[in-house]
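Here is the promised in-class demo. Please do not try to memorize the tokens; focus on the logic of going from shape to residues.
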């Protein structure tokens, strides 16, 4: 099963991908996470990506496509993938389709996370992530049981993303509207799109996604 999660920044794609990948035993490929790792290790890609990400701009298609290509061709035994935050524009979508076709695979469903800008800003401003295991929390909606300590791995290395500030979030929302929103129509025309009300609580959204995978 190959799924694509599209939605504005902070719409909850990563949160649902984490839960779904455990339940269905499929791998999540988040281009945002992959790029943040490159930035952390100060690789060549990381040095190019850092500034663009800080400004909320998209990293060049060639870079992200190459990263995804390496990942999906490296292990053919994996049952499927959740593409979280990729594709981000029509060019990336066409390239993904070609890569999967070459591997004898296809996209089964595209989940579109629909939520208002007001909620997005609140979610993003409260997001805290664990540098050790990647778990994501929210100081308003989903705080850690013990302040400053990751529930999952016990690390106290919790941080706020550098692109989670008001100015960058505005840019990220603009980029989403201009480059990524056309994907909604693109996948609707292919009969692959399911739009989920991403305003609900995490567990209910998860149920809606599971339902969408079974019924449509
Ligand atoms: P990326 O990391 O992909 O960021 P994004 O798409 O902006 O999405 P986010 O990670 O911000 O949000 P999310 O939807 O995953 O929400 P989450 O589950 O964390 O990309 C970052 C940058 O990398 C880009 O700006 C770009 O520069 C670059 N990049 C990435 N991919 C690229 C590509 N393909 N091409 C080019 N450049 C690329 O939830 C947010 C918060 O809300 C959390 O605190 C969470 O706990 C909380 N929350 C989640 N669900 C709920 C709920 N139902 N109720 C209440 N709170 C909730």
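The designed amino acids, position by position:
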């Amino acid at each position: 099963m190959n799924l694509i999660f599209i939605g504005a920044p902070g719409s909850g794609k990563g949160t649902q991908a984490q839960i779904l990948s455990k339940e269905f035993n499929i791998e999540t490929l988040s281009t945002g996470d992959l790029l943040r790792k490159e930035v952390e290790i100060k690789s060549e890609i990381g040095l190019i990506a850092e500034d663009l990400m800080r400004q909320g701009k998209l990293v060049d298609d060639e870079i992200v496509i190459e990263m995804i290509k390496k990942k999906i061709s490296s292990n053919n035994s994996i049952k499927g993938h959740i593409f979280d935050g990729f594709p981000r524009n029509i060019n990336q979508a066409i390239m993904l389709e070609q890569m999967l076709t070459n591997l004898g695979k296809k996209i089964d469903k595209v989940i579109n996370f629909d939520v208002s800008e007001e909620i997005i800003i609140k979610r993003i401003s409260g997001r805290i992530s664990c540098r050790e295991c990647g778990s994501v929390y929210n100081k308003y909606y989903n705080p850690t049981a013990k302040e400053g300590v990751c529930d999952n791995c016990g690390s106290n290395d919790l941080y706020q993303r550098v692109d989670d500030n008001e100015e960058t979030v505005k840019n990220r929302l603009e980029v989403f509207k201009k480059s990524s929103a056309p994907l909604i129509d693109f996948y609707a025309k292919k009969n692959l799109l399911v739009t989920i009300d991403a305003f609900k609580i995490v567990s209910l959204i998860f149920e809606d996604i599971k339902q969408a995978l079974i019924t449509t």
